[in-house]
Protein 1
Amino acid sequence: MKFELLKGDITTLEVDIIVNAANSSLLGGGGVDGAIHRAGGPSILKECKEIVDEQGNCPTGEAVMTNAGNLKALKVIHTVGPVWKGGQFKEAQALANCYYNSLKLAEIAEVSSIAFPNISTGVYGYPKQQAAEVAVKTVYGFVFNHVKKVVFVCYDDQNYNIYSSLLFQ
Ligand code: AR6
């Protein structure tokens, strides 16, 4: 297994799967969600809508997979991170579920690489250090069969520095 740390825009990556930090409506939004839909084009939103029509909103901690439109990736996995409410509302479990369920879908798809943004650490307000610890612990604890490379993509310096010390200490 290879774990990589990158700083920048996740939409530019050439990996099999890009993970999106979505909301339960799957209808898009700001932050990385907005960037993925902008770069990927309307086919992603179309498939998100079909999924919601069939299954209803995507619950927190769950993940669904769509096409990747114009992105270089093969697929996008949309997962819904928890809104931070102080830590007493099972936020850590919900965030771990996001990483776990995304990896599970990637394994089912038999892909070999996947890139994650720092789920919930933007608008959803999850403290960055704590979120990174959950992310790294969950990914490191996962048993991989097909996936050979996981990329942690940080957009801001603070997250990048936190991940650097967690991954390379
Ligand atoms: N590439 C990689 N990371 C990015 C990018 C990018 N292009 N843009 C932002 N980030 P956020 P959340 C980082 O707010 O907290 C949306 O409106 C950003 O710096 O995108 O899970 C959804 O629709 C931060 O570290 O997602 C939901 O309503 C991380 O991505 C809500 O925001 C996550 O920030 C989800 O909130």
Protein 2
Amino acid sequence: LFDLNESGDAKIDEFSESITVGGWIRSIRDSKTFGFISISDGTCFKTLQIVYDDTLPNFKDISKLNVGAAIIVSGRLVLTPGAKQPFEIQADEVMVEGNSTSDYPLQKKRHSFEYLRTIPHLRARTNTFQATFRVRSLIAYAIHKFFQERGFVYVHTPIITGSDCEGAGEMFQVTTLNVDELLKGNNKSAEDVEKELSYEDDFFEKKTSLTVSGQLDGETYAQAFKKIYTFGPTFRAENSNTTRHAAEFWMIEPEISYADLEDDMELAEDMIKYIIEYVLDNAKDEMEFFNSFVDKGLLERLNHVKDSDFGRVTYTEAIDILKEHNDEFTYKVSWGCDLQTEHERYLTETVFKKPIFVTDYPKDIKAFYMKLNDDEKTVAAMDCLVPGIGEIIGGSQREDDYDKLIKRMKELGLDENEYKFYLDLRKYGSTRHAGFGLGFERCVMYLTGMSNIRDVIPYPRTVGSLV
Ligand code: 4AD
Ligand code: MG
């Protein structure tokens, strides 16, 4: 509404005209002749205190309102020097938009995140989730701003797809074939019916799935626009019940032509720093809240990251470092193994103590499309690891040589016909190109200090759970 000046000596007269605010009651307490209501109107992080008294004709009705009720208050804004809040509204009128019942689940007390996960339709009305979802929105905006300012074209890649980009077999199938329907009215077993089902009878007349990544389609547009990015939902039927895995999550996937792995890492580092800067500048109240109540030291850490270089280490060097500490790990490392979260976190939290890029992974633990290095054992891949989380970005330079790509696809048993469009790119004006995927929820976790992916996406879908 206004900026209080530092010494707090703004004149009350300046604010004496009446203002009107609609919001939801966070708490209400009354005595015989007056009462206080704290409301959240959703437009900023802070709550607003309303003072009302028995000069209002509906004083008794107001006092009976429940927490959660929606009201509209008109009154004068008055400064309250020395009080917890800098100003309050002295109500001339309190109208009830919609009362709430007394069983409203968000009474004024601390609720555990576990409990709040059971009421995802209401949890955005609490401080923590107000802060989280406003910051989530700001990060999304910052990401678009970052890429648009640099001339990237935003591409909407399909959600329903016929190819498995990552080749990990973690796709949710999309089908209109209905086993229940076929079972009706005959005594065949589900297995028999399944044998009779044919993809030719299915909606797309072929096997289709929800996308795990928009990269392959993104690459085709990067070979037309030079610099593109995607920003959309992706789906993985990964059987990982962890605090960092969701079955439905959002991913940002830039793709740049005439570019190599070095350009890719530079872009990723610039993007992360840009997001941090934007959020620190535009969500001060929320970030201070996270720093005080969720993750002490968050602001200091982010400020430091913003102003220093990310670390760099090759996979082979990383394995050498980790091997020395094998007795500390549940999974022992050796060259060729995939890095587990415990290893990723050890590298970024204990060894480097800042975000790092791990590069040049063995080809056998990475996807088919990554560019083979001269050693023919590793690929031009990079993962960005951050303290507290581990991997937030996975990227690579892409194999742009037709023959090498087809050789790799054959080794992995991929169906060339499904990837004809992708192979075409290597025939018609192939360029060096690279890209990466930023896991949006992991990025939100990193910026807020929230430690469970279920608490940074409005309606989390995780293995065994869809609330
Ligand atoms: O490392 P990933 O699998 O890479 C790709 O999908 C590439 N196609 C990206 C590219 O080069 N265009 O996934 C990228 C990021 C991970 O680093 C992680 O942050 C996030 O996506 N991610 C998940 N986030 C939440 N839940 C899951 N199950 C995730 N799987 C990956
Ligand atoms: Mg990855």
